[in-house]
Write a structure and sequence with these properties.
This is DNA starvation/stationary phase protection protein. By secondary structure, the protein is mainly α. It contains 5 helices and no strands.
Length: 159
C-alpha cells in the first residue's frame, strides 16, 4: 500500500508542527471552556436562570462548532488533533470547575475562560503570521473576536 504524499502547502514542516502545537492548546482551551459552559447551562439557578440557561446554551453550541474547526485545521496541517480528557487537561489553560458555583461566579469564571482562550489564540498568531498561514490566521482572528465579544457580554452582566 502506497503512503500518502508529503504535505506541500507552502509552510515548512517545522512551522506546521509549531502551528499545530499552538492550535492543540487552543483546542484544549476551547473544549474545556465548552465543557464548563455546558456544565453551567445544566446547573445554573437563581433569578437569572432563564437568561443564563439560554445564553450558556448559545455559547456552548458556538464552542462545539469551534472545536471541530480547530481540530480540522490541525488535521489539514498534517497532525493528529488531541481528543481525550487527559490530553486536554495537559494542554489547557482554562481552569476546571468541579463544583456548582452561584450564577454570578459562573459568569465570572466564563469571562475568565473566554479571555484565556483569546490570549491563547493571540499567542499563536506570531508564528502563524510569520509562516504565511492565512487559513490559521483567519481562524485565530475569528476565535479572538468571538471570545472577546463573549467576555464583554458576560462582563456586562456583572456591572
Amino acid at each position: 500500500m502506497a503512503s500518502a504524499p508529503a504535505i506541500n502547502i507552502g509552510i515548512s514542516d517545522d512551522n506546521r508542527a509549531k502551528i499545530a502545537d499552538g492550535l492543540s492548546r487552543l483546542l484544549a482551551d476551547s473544549y474545556t471552556l465548552y465543557l464548563k459552559t455546558h456544565n453551567f447551562h445544566w446547573n445554573v439557578t437563581g433569578p437569572m436562570f432563564n437568561t443564563l440557561h439560554t445564553m450558556f446554551m448559545a455559547q456552548y453550541t458556538e464552542l462545539h462548532t469551534a472545536v471541530d474547526d480547530i481540530a480540522e485545521r490541525i488535521r489539514a496541517l498534517g497532525f493528529h488533533a488531541p481528543g481525550s480528557y487527559s490530553q486536554f487537561a495537559k494542554l489547557t489553560s482554562v481552569a476546571e470547575e468541579t463544583g456548582v458555583p452561584k450564577a454570578q461566579d459562573m459568569i465570572r469564571q466564563l469571562v475568565e475562560g473566554h479571555e484565556t482562550v483569546a490570549r491563547t489564540a493571540r499567542s499563536i498568531f506570531p508564528i502563524v503570521d510569520d509562516a504565511g498561514d492565512e487559513p490559521s490566521a483567519d481562524l485565530l482572528t475569528q476565535r479572538m473576536q468571538i471570545h472577546e465579544k463573549t467576555a464583554w457580554m458576560l462582563r456586562s452582566l456583572l456591572e
